[in-house]
Specification:
By secondary structure, this protein is α/β, with parallel strands linked by helices. 57% of the residues lie in helices and 11% in strands. It folds into 2 domains: 13-75, no CATH class; 78-261, Rossmann fold.
Length: 263
Amino acid sequence: MSATPTAVTALTDHAAEAAIHAACRALALPTVRAQALPIAEAAVKQRLSHQAFLAEILTAECDERDARRRIRRVNEAKFPRTKRLTDFDVSRVPDLPPATLAHLAGGNWIDAGEPLVLLGDSGTGKTHLLIALGTAAAEQGRRVRYVTTAALVNELVEAADDKHLSRVLGRYARLDLLCLDEVGYVTLDPRGAELLFQIITAREERASIACASNAPFSEWGATFTDPRLAAAVVDRLTFNAHIIQTGTTSYRLSTSRKKGANT
């Protein structure tokens, strides 16, 4: 059965503009409200059909919403600074060929719940990669959070003391990607290590963790103190994982030396 044609009310330009603004406020369409007149004027000049005009104005609303969502996702991730993959010199990391970096930037590994482990000495680009890949994932619409290991453990301990640990664990469980930096930088007490293990176990094969560490896996026992717990953490973070060695040459140190030589 065909729909009954809707009766059209003739409006003056002023009345039509007021009606558009009122409808856009009611429907939460700020871009349509702001762009209706200029897009309508362009449509008249280009002799677009009514359908083409409608497509243009709705596409503008969708594009603006996507842009706002990307910005919101990046802000929610709480990255400490801005880092982009385009700013990373991939030639510094022989273990990271351009094809592998492109695959990681695409984010399919996140959808598959696969871990990413970045291992290397201080200044070799681990945090840059961690933030840049996390930013790419957030801009693709994924829920991402960056946190250092020490800060996460402190948050978990405080939540446990305040009797709302389950709420905090639930918040981290909803993330598509957890970017965990500075694994192995500080020794964790048994309670903190066990709470961190809960986060890691809850995400195993379901949601991705990307972590960065300056210590090889063989030295993680110094961080988790309990050898069995350290082995369990390594086992979960390396199963089906992408493991990237960033090397031993500090980019920051070499850059400082070059600047010193040129002065």
